[in-house]
Design goal:
By secondary structure, the chain is an all-alpha fold. The protein has seven helices and no strands. The radius of gyration is 17 Å and the shape is globular.
């Protein structure tokens, strides 16, 4: 398991949002495996968002803050589902790269997806602002998609002429996967069999 390094995490999160390309190259040069990405980028990013978004939403009156036990549970559940979501996305783009002339690698796909997601996660925090927060959040989510398109070739080596195909096919596969996953989850909650509210 990779060791957590607060200074490295701060530099990666800040760089991924404000100075992405040198940050991608720096992280890629470390040849990170998925555990390093989870500990240094994805995990902290999700925990920060899951902590700050509800608190700021409560302060600005755009969200209700759950009780102490519910708040901790919410952070934990958000972390688990966030890592699963980034992991699925990283697997799709990373493993699909081999079919488009790139290097098939879950580790590299996960790293690319996690770094590109930083502005989108920041948008979830900023989205709690009243009036224009949702618009800024939407813009940052779109920016994350643009960054993902630019970041993936650096990590999985898909050639220029196949980048659009790789990106579009990856997105289609993800939409299908999430649609399949969402049906049983929706069924659980609609029938009252889901996790009870705390």
């Amino acid at each position: 398991m990779a060791d957590f390094d607060l200074e490295r995490t701060q530099a990666l999160l800040k760089g991924a949002a404000l100075n992405p390309e040198p940050t991608w190259d720096s992280f890629r040069a470390d040849n990170p495996d998925w555990t390093q990405t989870a500990v240094l980028v994805a995990g902290p990013m999700i925990v920060i968002t899951a902590t700050l978004a509800p608190i700021l939403g409560w302060i600005f009156g755009t969200n209700m803050l759950p009780g102490a036990g519910g708040f901790v549970t919410q952070i934990f559940v958000t972390l688990i589902f966030g890592l699963i979501g980034l992991g699925i996305s990283g697997a799709v783009f990373g493993l699909l790269a081999g079919s488009f002339g790139g290097t098939q690698s879950f580790d590299n796909g996960f790293a690319a997806v996690s770094l590109a997601a930083v502005p989108g996660y920041a948008g979830q925090i900023i989205g709690t602002l009243p009036l224009i927060g949702w618009l800024i959040g939407l813009a940052l989510s779109i920016y994350s998609m643009v960054l993902l398109y630019r970041c993936l070739p650096r990590f999985v080596g898909v050639p220029q002429e196949k980048r659009v195909g790789h990106f579009v096919v990856g997105l289609i596969i993800l939409v299908v996967i999430y649609a399949i996953i969402s049906f049983p989850l929706a069924g659980l909650f609609l029938t009252g069999s889901g996790v009870p509210a705390v």
